[in-house]
User: What shape does this take?
Amino acid sequence: MTTHRPAAVIVLAAGEGTRMKSAVPKVLHTIGGRSLLGHAIAAARGAGPQHLAVVVRHGRDLVAAHVTEVDPEALVADQDEVKGTGRAVECGLTCLPSDLTGTILVTYGDVPLLAAETLTSLVAAHEESGSAVSVITADLPDPTGYGRVLRDGDGAVAGIVEQKDATADQLAITEINSGIYAFDADRLRSALARVGTDNAQGEKYLTDVLAIARGDGCRVSAHLVDDLWQTEGVNDRVQLARLGAELNRRTVERWMREGVTVVDPATTWIDTDVSFGRDVTIHPGTQLHGATTIGDDVEIGPDTTLTDVEIRRGAHVIRTHGSLALIGEGASVGPFAYLRPGTELGPDGKIGTFVETKNAVIGEGAKVPHLTYAGDARIAEGANIGAGTIFANYDGQTKRTSTVGRYTFVGSGSVLVAPVHLADGTYVGAGSTVTLDTDPGELAVARGKQRNVEGWVARRFPGSATDEAAKAAGECAGAAEQDGIPEAAAPVDPADGGAARA
Ligand code: UD1
Ligand code: MG
Assistant: This one.
């Protein structure tokens, strides 16, 4: 099989998109984590052209910068004040070699579901049939607004008429022009030079090229597609959501076919650039955005939103919100965890319930299980951070980092005031506010010493329920003592490390 590579693709993206009612140029609105234009460029690039040009005008600088960001090789062509798709293509041609031969494709920057394979088969059919122009068409139950495809008595394509220029008979035609074409380069240049603006909109119509080519005795072909989504453009935010949902449906289905279990496709959102290993399970209400990558045997959700997160093999992430984080092999996160940028959880580590982390590197097997803020933290292998520990990283001026050494054990309810460095193999007594570094093997205790004031309740709140309870307990204790039952277990070590443990 011969491969058919187009000489160029020209992506039209100069239009204003007024119906979006947005300060943002239409083609920069996103679905599936990519701009509409990003999707169009990816499809165009997928067809393997020698040159790829994007025609810009509205929001010129923003759109041009975006083109360069998503595809640094792409050429940017500026459209002048002459309006119309024909003028746009003419402007696109100015940045291509003037003697370029072969096939030139034209696509739209606001048609995000068009697949590269569709372009590839258009080029193949176009070149094999020896056509001057081949246009992708679709049969729509409601063709309102689109250009209609005119066919002659033999069924050959004779031209395209715009809605605003059509007669009543022509308006009844349901075969529409998608706006996606393959042109022979020479024929395109020659015909465009003869396109005028004598029409209802006073624009230079690209569609006029078809009738001109026919008049020159050339073959013009139509390629009817069944998959209507591929030719649908975004004009307003209703269409943006509709096409976004369909794109997601396609993405989720593709990954299920690649071996990902998606419990509820309807509530699972996966961006175009997310990737998965095998035997991943996604529970309902999960949204995976950006450049998120998921390893084999990972379980995610329910109710989890991750952006640009890497999850390695066998990890579990439950009811979590995270971005720019790394979750190591076999690690566990959530429920109710908030992973902010710079979080790196080591293999078999744990970030548990109601834990917020930011710029926190947590070593292999280390655990931050409950109710903790770990900001600007380095927590080494095997360390255990007790419930309710706060890494106080900010003094109102500067953020500083604290470190916790290997197999160090921070008691519950502690505050580590940055910068503080706990050595390997140390303990922090529960409820400590730690401001001094430790040496290996030490216990740090930093809290007021407890004293018990006898008879205080009876003096302060006489006759209260608390007082009554105390008195009743006193009588019981007296009776128990007489029966030979010990009053209480041995008192707890006052310096008790006391981290809550799951
Ligand atoms: C155009 C076609 C119509 C077709 C429809 C499919 C023409 C004359 N008409 O109609 O037959 O059914 O697309 O959606 O071609 N653009 C520019 N510069 C311009 C004008 C448009 O770059 O001066 C770009 C727009 O950004 C957009 C695309 O071309 O991506 C189509 O423009 P739009 O105004 O939507 O085309 P229609 O008039 O709807
Ligand atoms: Mg128009």
The longest strand covers residues 175-184. Confidence is low (pLDDT under 50) at residues 494-502. Residues 456-499 form one domain. The two ends are 63 Å apart (CA to CA).
